[in-house]
């Protein structure tokens, strides 16, 4: 399943709030109703050829000062000798223990579809239909009400979905999508044709941990 594949439209009841098309980066938006288990955020875009890094932050507020806590900081880094994805949590201005995934599912110059699936105790992330990582919550998911996207990334569409038809507790989770028509534009926001992908398909889904006590905000 590729990021540009046409599939079937989905019922409107799965769409939790209007999608955003081609948002300007940096991008910050309110998540209607906040986050809870059973919600899903889908991000479609392209990694620029000269990208160094970008980040997707699920924040507890949107203030500039004091900086809000960041429950989930998803940070692909392409400019290092060993490209990797880093996840972390910012609490009271201090970064917590850093988790790194050495495998890079994203590529410079390539399109992507990232799916964030929020479960009871962790978020699961798939890239282009394949499970990539899971990250356990360190702050209550109920505190998250803002999505922020920063750095070297071209975003085509952001969607917010409800996945209630899928059974909580299963090791498998939806990683596909389909195309939902909105006027003359289309966005990958489908659920009818979702496929399932097991964590065992990706042996690199377990992180490498690194302690980090820096009191600095995330770099864009």
Automatic annotation (TrEMBL):
SMART domains: Gal-bind_lectin, GLECT. Keywords: Lectin. One of its GO terms (cellular component) is cytoplasm. The keyword Transmembrane does not apply. GO terms for biological process: intrinsic apoptotic signaling pathway. GO terms for molecular function: lactose binding. This is Galectin. Residues 27-161 form the Galectin domain. It comes from Marmota monax (Woodchuck). PROSITE patterns: GALECTIN (PS51304).
């Amino acid at each position: 399943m590729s990021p540009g594949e046409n599939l079937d439209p989905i019922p409107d009841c799965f769409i939790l709030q209007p999608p955003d098309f081609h948002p300007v980066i940096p991008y910050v938006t309110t998540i209607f109703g906040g986050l809870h288990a059973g919600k899903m955020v889908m991000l479609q875009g392209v990694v620029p050829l000269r990208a160094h890094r970008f980040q997707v932050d699920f924040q507890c507020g949107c203030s500039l000062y004091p900086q809000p806590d960041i429950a989930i900081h998803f940070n692909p880094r392409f400019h290092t000798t060993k490209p990797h994805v880093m996840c972390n949590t910012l609490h009271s201005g201090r970064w917590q223990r850093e988790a790194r995934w050495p495998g890079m599912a994203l590529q410079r110059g390539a399109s992507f579809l990232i799916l964030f699936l929020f479960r009871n105790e962790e978020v699961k992330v798939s890239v282009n239909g394949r499970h990539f990582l899971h990250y356990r919550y360190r702050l209550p998911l109920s505190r998250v009400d803002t999505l922020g996207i920063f750095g070297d990334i071209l975003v085509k569409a952001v969607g917010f979905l409800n996945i209630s038809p899928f059974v909580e507790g299963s090791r498998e989770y939806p990683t596909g999508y389909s195309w939902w028509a909105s006027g003359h534009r289309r966005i990958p926001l489908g659920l009818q044709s979702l496929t399932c992908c097991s964590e065992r398909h990706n042996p690199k889904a377990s992180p490498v941990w690194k302690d980090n006590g820096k009191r600095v905000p995330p770099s864009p």
